[in-house]
Amino acid sequence: MDTGMLIEKFILVVIIFLISLGIAAYSTYFERKLAAWIQDRVGPDRAGKFGLLQPIADGVKMFFKEDFIPKNSDRWLFIMGPGISMFTALITSAIIPWGPNIQAFGRTIELQVADFNIGILFIFGVVSLGVYGIMIGGWASNNKYSLFGAIRASSQMISYELAMGITLITIILMSGSLSLSEIVDKQHGMNWNIFYQPIAFIIFFVCSLAETNRAPFDLPECESELIGGYHTEYSSMKLGLFLFSEYVSMFISAAVISILFFGGYNFPGMDNFSGNTLALLCVLAFFAKIFMFIFIFMWIRWTIPRFRFDQLMHLGWKTLIPLSIINMLVTGIVIAFYQGWF
Amino acid sequence: MESLTNRKIVVSDKPMTFIEKLYIPAILSGMWITLKHMFSKRKTIKYPEEQRVFAPVYRGMHVLKRDEQGRENCTACGLCAVACPAEAITMIAAEREKGEEHLFREEKYAETYEINMLRCIFCGLCEEACPKEAIFLTDRIVPTEYERADFIYGKDVLVEALENRIDITKRQATGKRGSI
Lengths: 342, 180
Ligand code: SF4
Ligand code: SF4
What we know:
The complex is a heterodimer. Chain A is built from eleven helices and two strands, in the order H-H-H-E-E-H-H-H-H-H-H-H-H. By secondary structure, chain A is mainly α. The model of chain A has no long low-confidence stretch (mean pLDDT 82). Helices cover 21% and strands 13% of the residues of chain B. The structure holds iron/sulfur cluster (2 copies).
């Protein structure tokens, strides 16, 4: 590994970090705007033009709040909780292929921090680590509502991860690789997985909603039953980190969904371009897809009421898992049939 | 039973059909509804710049009236305080001295008169109770403050200024209290 590569990876990491945080910050703004529009309101419009400075105002507010640690809490775990949440939310962005290689300064630069050959397993592993932040935070608060929220989060995560993992297998079967960049390359142009695997897409999408704890699966924080769920006892920037990590992981899940089912950075008619123009257009296409999914995530949140917990378990275990197993079997049989393994 | 109105809705708990169990059509139709709302007309009134037109009967901040010669009407009888369901009014009475006839209409007057705007529920019963036509509710809004103490309004705020009389005819002309 030479120095040039180190520098370029470092720059890429910083850029991705800033972009993730920026998008997460403006997601909070957009979420509030969208909620307002759906409810026939105007939304934040006082801080700056169209309220565009609202995320900054929110951040400043969070920083100036009293940072309170309850007396009976487990101090270190209490501090670690939001940190783990944020860390796991951010680290997945490392292996997302943002676009094809670009040529600059006489080098070929990959727009991907790390091209693991087991990329998908890495994402899957890190995402399931994410629940530890919630679990530890909820446990360390020493508050029954927080504990309830933490328990709900973990049981929800376990139930939905199964269905998610099984649908992932269908995608891996389709592309024959665990590496995200290869999965993207297989969907060149308009050859997107969604056209072959609509059911897998629906299952994966529902599971992503559940994994990111967004409505209608926001039971871990469900205000009307558990006050704030796992973050009941949190205040100031620790609460900010929890809330923020939700938006970061929403951004990442949107990216993962677009990679797995909507061709990542591929777009129809991409063969007419080449070189850096292509790379730029690809990145734009990828971000357009991500924004579309973030929009859909929010749109769903402000449309559908929250599930009851037994309904959630029912949906996860009795509907999504059997459905995904059947889908996987059918995919396997069809692939085996066409490739002549019978 | 035969329903008298046509608004009766018969509740049914028949089992869901397969399509309904899929939920997806229902979710999509719900999303269509919210999508339409995204582009509908905003109902927001941007308050300080834009103000809602108040109904004529609106009950807002009180005023203690003066008569045509600029004398305070209130005689500190305490009827408003007794009528107040929120116990928001207190006052201390004083006797009018010689030479103060141009200030107070009656021989007894309120030396201090306080309304706690945080307690007041703007029911208007003080206005009803007053035998001297001294206290009225107006269409002014009680402004926000940072301290609780600032919400206790004394005579300096409540009594109308001589040169700046408060118009109360809009609410009074609704016929709620006869004519004035
Ligand atoms: S409006 Fe009602 S609550 Fe307010 S001071 Fe008058 S009587 Fe009391
Ligand atoms: S405002 Fe009217 S009711 Fe109240 S003390 Fe004065 S005169 Fe009496």
